[in-house]
Amino acid sequence: MRQHNLLLPLKSEEFAVLQPGDKVLLSGVLYTARDQAHKRLVEIIARKSELPFDLSSTALFYCGPSPTPPGKVCGAIGPTTSSRMDPYTIPLLEQGLKIMIGKGERSAEVEDAIRKHGALYLVCCGGISALLAESVLSFELFAWPELGAEAIYRLEVRDLPCYVAIC
Fold first, then answer.
1. Contact, 38 vs 55, CB < 8 A?
2. Which of 62, 82, 119, 167 is the least buried, fewest Cβ under 10 Å from its Cβ?
């Protein structure tokens, strides 16, 4: 297995060397987004309004953080099932999204779209949410607090362990 230490935002030449099965230690700024956040992002696109952040320079992590315990940067940050985001993925790819992180399979249509748009789907291991949280350097609510765990959070991570699933 090959391992890559990658810093967001990724350059196109970094995408070119990745292969399914490669381990990635991802560092930089990313945003959490689950079903309701995805729905809102796609509604913004449909209205031709400006998105709250640049999709091409970051990653979307399909996770809803748990509450932050005392003395910790954030709570557990385990990945959620990625196929739930499939209905929203293609419009986001068309707006420049390049990196998605979650768990599980994607539909054939979304797999094709990821490849067509030169994007990357990374998976994190489920069941190790507390361990994944140790990679978080900073954590802040970014958008739509009324969505609770489904709000968008901005995370700065160092060496978040992922594996390349689709590229």
1. no
2. 167
DSSP for 58-90? S-EE-B-PPPPPTTSSS----B-BGGGGHHHHH
Phi-psi region of 113 (alpha: psi -120 to 50; beta: other; left: phi over 0): alpha
Active site residues: 38
- Give the model confidence (pLDDT) of 110-139 as tens digits: 999 999 999 999 999 888 898 899 999 999
CB contact at 8 A, 155 and 138: yes
Structure tokens at 11: 């350059």
Say if residues 134 and 93 touch (Cβ distance below 8 Å): no
Range of the domain at 126: 3-166
Share of the chain above pLDDT 70, in %: 100
pTM for this entry: 0.95
Q: CA–CA separation, 132 vs 15, rounded Å? A: 23
Number of structural domains (the chain) is 1
Q: What is the CATH number of the domain that holds 7?
A: 3.20.130.10
